[in-house]
Structure formats: structure tokens, C-alpha cells
Amino acid sequence: MENENQKYLVFALCKGRLAFKTLELLEQIGVTCEEMKDKDTRKLVFVNEELKLKFFLAKGPDVPTYVEYGAADIGVVGSDIILEENRRVYEVLDLGFGKCRMCVCGPESARDLLMHRERIRVATKYPTIAKDYFFNKKNQTVDIIKLNGSVELGPIVGLSDVIVDIVETGSTLRENGLDVLEEICPLSARVIVNQVSMKMQNDRIFDIIEKLKAKLNA
Ligand code: PRP
């Protein structure tokens, strides 16, 4: 019979750039998965039998969901998603990469609209963050329009006055004649942990967090 020590520790990672950087870092602390390096695989879940680890890749916004429900013990995800999804998970570590900023952006001509609490239209993939910023921090009533990507289109095609979106290098804005008008908050990759796993698998999880911290501080 399996005892607690033999239980798999399950990681949920965001598909894409963040997963690549995360796996690189995990590898440096001995949390490895050879199976995952095969670029052509269609597999969804990867296992390291020897270390009793499992990994899966999910869409960013779903990572906190898997962690909240305990389908994954540990997740790595951007703080934009943590703020937007608002799931019951412990956020335990800032990995310091995937750095970018959540901003209000638009054409220069829209700057004035932000100063005078006008009722404006805000397009965004992040309605919760946008609502919190405009309603609670700025006391400005706005209409939030949810989009699923290429949000910069909003002001360009006349759907919205401004957008709330992630700015990393700023090149998407520049190439489309838009500017950062206000900064909402800095963002980076974070480690999140399921609340029950934190108690039941505390030793293993604590060990990983401490090794990650040491590596990041080195
Ligand atoms: C993100 C974000 C911006 C862009 C910012 O989009 O929504 O559009 O990157 O990066 P930059 O400042 O370096 O140009 P993503 O590539 O994730 O695609 P999406 O717009 O379809 O969500």
C-alpha cells in the first residue's frame, strides 16, 4: 500500500515561456522530468517515477484552479493571473522572472479622460483587476469590456477608450501608437500551493521552496 511519502507531488505549470523558465529553475534544484523534454510529445502529464513527481501544463488562468482544488499541489503562474482569478491558494514565493507591469494604456489623447473621472470604456483580459483599479482605487465609473487577446486593438478600432493590459517590453504598444498612461502594479512569476497540501506534504514542499529561495538568492 502507498504511504504518504510515496504520494506524487504534482506541479501545474503555465503553457509557454513561463513553463520553460520554470523547468530550467526546477532542474537546477534537482526537480527534474526527462519525459517533458521531448518537444514532439502530445502527452499531457509527465512523471518522474524515481522522485515521485508529476507535472502538467495548463492554460495560465486554469493553474490556480487546479491548485485550489488540489489536482495540483504546487503551481507556477504570473501574479496577473493570481490577482485576476482570486483563488484560495497560498502564494509562497516570487520567482523574480516573467517581470512585467499591469498598465492602463491608450492613445495620448485618452490621458485626459483618466484625470476627470469620465465614464470611459476599458477593454481588457483582466476585468477583475480593471474593476478593482478603476472602482476602488480611482473611484472612476467605467464600462469594462472583456476581451480574450490582442487587447491593443480596443482603442485602435474604436471599441474602447483605453485598455488594461500587461506591458513587458512595450513594443506592442509602440508599434500600434499607444502609450502607458498609468501603472497599476508590477508583475512576476509566483509559486502557489494548495492549502491542504501545505499541511499534508509540508516537508517536501518546504524543502522545494527553500531550495528555490537559495537558488534565487545565489
Ligand atoms: C501580451 C500582452 C501584450 C503584450 C505585451 O500579449 O497582452 O499584448 O504581450 O508585451 P510587450 O510589451 O513585450 O509588447 P500576448 O503575447 O500574451 O498575447 P495576447 O495579446 O493575445 O494575449
Structure, described:
The chain has two domains: 4-98 and 188-217, Periplasmic binding protein-like II (D-Maltodextrin-Binding Protein, domain 2); 100-185, D-Maltodextrin-Binding Protein, domain 2, CATH 3.40.190.10. Strand 2 and strand 3 (53-58) form a beta hairpin. The chain is built from nine helices and eleven strands. A six-stranded mixed beta sheet has the order 2-3-1-4-11-5. A five-stranded mixed beta sheet has the order 8-7-9-6-10. The termini are far apart. It is elongated and about 60 Å long. It has 218 residues and is an alpha/beta fold. Residues 149-152, 165-172 line the site of 1-O-pyrophosphono-5-O-phosphono-alpha-D-ribofuranose.
Short synopsis of the structure:
This protein has helices at residues 17-28, 63-68, 79-85, 111-115, 127-137, 153-157, 171-175, 195-200, 202-217; strands at residues 9-14, 45-48, 53-58, 74-78, 90-94, 100-106, 120-124, 142-146, 162-167, 179-187, 189-193.
Jot down its keywords:
2 domains; 33% helix; alpha/beta; binds 1-O-pyrophosphono-5-O-phosphono-alpha-D-ribofuranose; single chain; 218 residues; D-Maltodextrin-Binding Protein, domain 2; 6-stranded mixed β-sheet; 9 helices; 5-stranded mixed β-sheet
